[in-house]
Specification:
2 copies of one chain form a homodimer. Chain A is of the alpha+beta class. The first copy, chain A, has 2 domains: about 10-110, Phosphorylase Kinase, domain 1, CATH 3.30.200; about 115-395, Alpha-Beta Complex (Aminoglycoside 3'-phosphotransferase, Chain: A, domain 2). Chain A has 14 helices and 12 strands. Chain A has a 5-stranded antiparallel beta sheet, with helices on both faces. Chain A has a 3-stranded antiparallel beta sheet with strand order 8-10-11. In chain A, a hairpin with a 4-residue loop joins strand 6 (about 95-100) and strand 7.
């Protein structure tokens, strides 16, 4: 294997022609690189009418170069996960056309008629089905890859198949360590430094974060997406697509649910200071909290139904157990969401929802609010027993 | 690979001569099969002075035959685990001389000067260091195979290396399912049937058992022995050796600690009805409870020291976190111990500690006592915060 970048557009075209039947043989194809430039290469290949996306991974992080190696195995994992997700939640992921280990690349459906959820949030686009779609996606993918559905041997082989150490290590550090100490990778706006230092000295918080880290590292419960932030979701008013599962591994269900709910709350924090009329921002904040309720309700209902319909695991399918299990998943969801809220505020990777607030003091108000919310969610997650209880905390927290 | 049984004694001798240097070339060797006949073949090969044990696994369960296939991979796992244990707890395991995948067999130190702990318990032998030895063995093996010690990549590769589905499935069924329903594999003494039926109808208990099962299936925390009952431990007054790790896999630390503590309590239950003067039986019961305290204290102290000395994992090594973690491990230990107590009383595999009570009514009294204790331990494990609290429950439970 050479693991080298496609040499030129012609190589990308050749890959698409060899591995998909999306274009006629004599159709002229146009190639455009559309990636964010961070980790991988993403190409859009356009024909007369249709188009295809090609994603290529190299054995290092693109933006840094060969100094930060990253296992090429992640592209195999991403391709397999997209196929698994498509089996159970076909409406919510792009179609995978072909994966080639030789080129460490795959071709998939172009979902260019969708927009990135992060920017839809920032621009306050109405997304009436978002929470429901996400809840269904989560229920289908997490149920069907867990012991609730898979036989013991398939499940355990899958755990081994999706072991993804280098990728998990990134999350272990960025979520559960950096923001809780004075780490050089952190990016802290000066007016927030004092609040950040408060977290570094907060022993109770650091213990709870480490408990969540232990779960992240040791709870091989379901095949989780592993990086389900708003930038991994593409939306139209009537459609939701989840992409980029290269961080997938067998982990706790609550990590995925918490990651996306954390991103909803981060946009909520940003709306305090983003441009636009106050009533419009207030309304969008109310919409965001409603979608947290909708996401969890859809997940809870669909997961419960799936167990009743499809689980022949006699102990885990006991209805009382399922409800206890889901109640535990919810509490851990709140905790993981809190870690996402905090790490996006003072850690390495910030988000435009808050960073695009131009006024540094106004931005700092959103950041401090996010830190306070995240702390509360992590430390008190066992007593935050429902989305309504979580929303009540967000509503009561002074801005 | 043929995976066939050693044809005759000469084949066993040839194996030992080829793979170990324990005997001189012209020394006459004598072979004796000493296994219990259940799953594998165990040979003692004796020379003029020394001796060696050979263990051979076949791709099925010996006592049943080819009708119950069992992956041959278990002998590779057992050999590797014995070597790993020997690295960290050399005093507490037999020396491994050689493993050969070709013959699916290994040769190890003969610990024939030790006796099986189950029979030492039944005969009430004094074992003043037992609890301490077990606690040290558990601390060394569990710490050094967990995220507290291993780097992220080594740990995750080890999880994959020790995936052991067929073996784990046996435990998943026998511990966490059979005893809680009217299963054909159960073995229930008629006077205990009513008490067993009580468990089958006990919804709260079944939910807690399923939570423990979820942990057993999903918590890949450390390389656990996986079958640490009294029959896997060999003892002298001054020495303790743990054998038979063929059920090893990456699981919860509390499963190992709970399994052995469950066996101590099972012998406690048996002592009510075993032969011998009451004061002798009372004294031995008091000794047993003391060894539970000693085992946990030694584990707790050594684990805490190991983290302080050797862990460079910055979050998990926070002293406050370690104490919280160990408190959680203790509660789960109580729960797993409860499942061991119950499954040995009404499940498939009984133990001589209770079964050797001849009088069926007297035996049933011990069995009912064990069931009541096991239930209490499982359901209330979160409020049983120390070995002393556990012992107080055993002492207060009417016989």
């Amino acid at each position: 294997m050479t693991y080298s970048k496609f040499e030129d557009d012609a190589a990308v075209v050749a890959f698409v022609r060899a591995h998909t039947d999306q274009f006629t043989a004599d159709e002229p194809l146009h190639v455009e690189e559309i990636g964010d430039g961070n980790i991988n290469y993403i190409y859009r290949v356009k024909g007369n009418e249709g188009s295809v996306i090609v994603k290529q991974a190299l054995p290092y992080i693109r933006i840094i170069g060969t100094d930060w190696p990253l296992s090429i195995d992640r592209i195999r994992i991403e391709a397999q996960v997209l196929q698994t997700e498509a089996m159970w939640a076909p409406n919510f992921v792009p179609k995978m056309y072909a994966f080639s280990a030789e080129e460490s690349a795959f071709a998939m459906e172009d979902i260019g008629d969708h927009e990135n959820l992060r920017f839809a949030f920032i621009e306050r686009h109405p997304l009436p089905s978002l929470g429901e779609h996400l809840g269904l996606f989560l229920a289908e993918t997490l149920f069907h890859t867990s012991d609730f559905y898979l036989d013991y041997e398939t499940k355990k082989r899958a755990v081994a198949n999706y072991i993804n150490p280098g990728i998990c290590k990134i999350t272990e550090d960025l979520f559960f360590w950096d923001p809780y100490c004075d780490h050089e990778r952190n990016s802290i706006s000066p007016p927030v430094l004092e609040a950040a230092q408060g977290l570094w000295n907060d022993k109770a918080l650091k213990i709870e974060v480490t408990k969540l880290k232990r779960q992240f590292m040791n709870c091989s419960e379901a095949l989780v997406h592993g990086d389900l932030h708003a930038g991994s979701v593409f939306v139209r008013a009537d459609s939701t697509k989840v992409i980029d599962p290269e961080f997938a591994f067998y982990g706790p269900m609550a990590f995925d649910i918490g990651s996306i709910i954390g991103n909803v709350l981060l946009n909520y924090a940003g709306q305090f200071g983003l441009a636009g009329p106050k009533n419009e921002r207030d309304d969008y904040q109310a919409f965001l909290l409603g979608e947290i309720v909708n996401c969890w309700s859809a997940f809870h209902k669909r997961f419960t139904d799936l167990v009743a319909e499809k689980s022949d695991e006699p102990t885990m399918s006991q209805p009382d157990y399922v409800q206890t299990f889901l109640a535990d998943v919810w509490c851990e969801t709140v905790g993981f969401a809190g870690t996402e809220v905090i790490r996006r505020t003072i850690g390495l990777a910030h988000i435009a929802d808050i960073d695009s607030i131009d006024d540094i003091e106004l931005r700092a108000k959103s950041e401090r609010w996010a830190l306070a919310l995240g702390r509360e969610m992590i430390v008190n997650r066992h007593s935050i027993s429902s989305p309504d209880a979580l929303n009540a905390i967000a509503l009561a927290l002074p801005y």
